[in-house]
Amino acid sequence: MSPPMNDHIAKQFDADLENIRNRVLQMGGVVEQLIVMAMDGLSSGDMLVIDEAIATDERVNRHEVELDEACNQVIARRQPTASDLRLVMTVVKIITDLERIGDEAKKVAKMAKQIHGSDFHSAPAIEFRHVSGMVVSMLRQALDAFARLDVVAAGQVVRADQEVDVEFKSAMRQLITYMMEDPRTISHSLDMVFIAKAIERIGDHSKNIAEYVIYMVKGRDVRHIGLAEIEREIAS
Questions:
Q1: Is the pLDDT of residue 236 over 90?
Q2: What is the CATH number of the domain that holds 98?
Q3: Stated pTM of the model
């Protein structure tokens, strides 16, 4: 005997939501690859890697458009309520931040192409591998928190963003010192400022994703309440 129609509809709705969740994680994987390629290209000057990173941003954009449409279809056809609606709205916000992370990584790749294509190679010796590894880890943990609805892990991402901010400020101090001591480094130092800011913004967007996870699970918007209050919300 066939299951009742309403049961069939409910199962299809659950399948639609699960499909969307999986596609968000796939998009996140592509974005993570893009960050890694951009930073590898910056370190190595490998133009093939840099060009692949730039091209990969188009894949990220396609994911965003397709997922946005899938969310619109779910809202229009299923009219989700309560926690299901929170999930869909969270996905809409997450894919926007993932697309923006892709944009920031693409900026790094384009700047790497400019730097390594230049004849002037006395660029300031600023090391970005550590902080870029931090933001990649933040993104991965934020997406894992989304997959497992883990607010504790999400809170750790929010906390990690403060460490990224410290690294960013340290890089800014180094670059200002370079520019003051040797005006010939100003042009390339400004390129490095641009890259450092892009990495810092990737951390910000990863933190946003973690905060959306807390909203999805707890039902409270925690974007502007500070780390201490977020940790109290998680513990409650």
A1: no
A2: 1.20.58.220
A3: 0.90
